[in-house]
Amino acid sequence: MALNNQETAPIVVAGTGCPGPVPNMLDHPHGIFVDNQLNLYVADTDNNRIQFFAPDQKNAITMAGFGATVLFILNRPTGIVLDADGYLFIVESQNHRIIRSIPNGFKCLVGCSGNSGATSNQLNYPQTMAFDTIGN
C-alpha cells in the first residue's frame, strides 16, 4: 500500500487486538521502525522480542529475543532503529542498554553492565533512540 494514497480508513498491519506470543500477535508493542521497503520492525515489549513484518504479511519473523534463531535474551525492548547499513539497534529498557546486531549475533554498545545509572557508560530505563542525518 502506498503511503501517499488518498484512503483514510485505518488498516491493521500487525497484531490481532489481543496480546499473545505467536507470530501474528504482539504484547504491548512500544517502538516501531519502517524501512524504505515498508518492512515493519516492532519492539514487542512484553514478549521480549523484536518482530519483523514484511509488507502485507500478518505473521512476523522474530529477529531478536524470545523465539529468534540466534539466542539473545531481551528484557523489555522499547525501541528499534535500523542504520543505513541495515544493522538493528535495540533499546532495552529493563536491562538499561542499547545493543546492535552484528553478523551472526548481537553486541552491547552502551549500558553493558545492566545496571541503571547516570555515568557516561550507563543508562536509566532508556525508551527510544534515533540517528541524525549524518548517522550519529
From TrEMBL:
Looking up Pfam families in the UniProt record yields: NHL (PF01436)
Name-wise, this protein is NHL repeat-containing protein
- Residue ranges of NHL repeats: 17-56
Q: Where is the signal peptide?
A: none
Q: Which InterPro entries does this entry report, sorted A to Z?
A: 6-blade_b-propeller_TolB-like, NHL_repeat
Q: Which UniProt keywords apply?
A: Repeat
> Gene3D superfamilies, alphabetically?
TolB, C-terminal domain
Give the originating organism: Rotaria sordida
